Amino acid sequence: MITFSSQEKYSALKEKRVSLRDAIPLAKPFTILFEPASVCNFKCRCCFQNEPDFHSYLPRGYMKFEDFKMIADDLAAWPGAKIKVVRIIGFGEPLLNPATPAMVKYCKELGLAERLEITTNAALLTPRVARELIDAGLDYLRCSIYAVDQKKHEALTQGRTSVRTIRDNIAALRELRAAAGAARPFIYVKMLESGEPAENDLFLKEYSDIADEAALEKPHHWLAGADGPVRREVCPQPFKMMSVHFNGDVIMCDPDWRGNTCVGNALTEKISAIWGGKRVREFWRLQLEKRRRENESCRNCSFLVDEYAIDDLEGVSPDVLGRPLT
Prior knowledge:
Elements: E1 2-3, H1 20-23, E2 31-34, H2 54-57, H3 65-77, E3 83-88, H4 100-110, E4 113-120, H5 127-136, E5 140-145, H6 150-157, H7 163-179, E6 186-192, H8 197-207, E7 213-217, E8 241-244, E9 249-251, E10 262-265, H9 271-274, H10 278-288, H11 296-299
Parallel strand pairs: 2-3, 2-8, 3-4, 4-5, 5-6, 6-7
Antiparallel strand pairs: 1-7, 8-9, 9-10
Helix pairs in contact: 3-4, 4-5, 5-7
């Protein structure tokens, strides 16, 4: 990992965590994910988009800005502390939706969250889009790199976008940020460990001079079966987050593209009513009673053997669900 910014590193944010074990049930989720688009300009072999039946579960579509505003207004009217993080990500490429920078700006105007992030493959991060994201006040931009070698990139993404274009886009963002005298967005560039030290080293070399932080992350295969012994039975995700699809459907697990954790729709119900409502509480109980395999998406998910599962809720009694949301 390489970093040279005086700003707070993206990788350090997880060190400032509330103990979920001591805090549940939460009055509102720590994290809300918005999906601007369910389609992508890549079809990465390691991604859900590469599943042959992906769009039979999740239709192709884009979140309308007016729908986004309605949901954001609902969140802003929810009493209590701010949402800690709003992530604009979902199952597609956020920058395919031309309204994404306006979504960022609107969230900032509402003061909706302590931190606002976008995850992108950066292929569509043109100078115009970069300026819009800077002006909107985006806090963190996470850029996913799949390979630094062109042939390998094409093989992994099943697309022909130039790796040089992607790097130039990120470099341009950094230059535009400096020209604007802005400190944000913090630029976090990451690649999944390739298993080839030379490829990993080349990635760090390519991005060490333009990213605020460049990092190698562990591969994951969520929903596809665990690669090792299951260390835990209780998934922490649904106790701290909700993800809103482009069509308003709310799921309790960010990799659940099959929709088996859907608990409502934010266009027809208030999120504050969905969170802590009957369907959410039933799903929480399913987890705490170690019955997660009753849910098709949870049954073989490898999240619990992954480094991403930081919180540990093993042994927490289902009786906590009788407490008022705090």
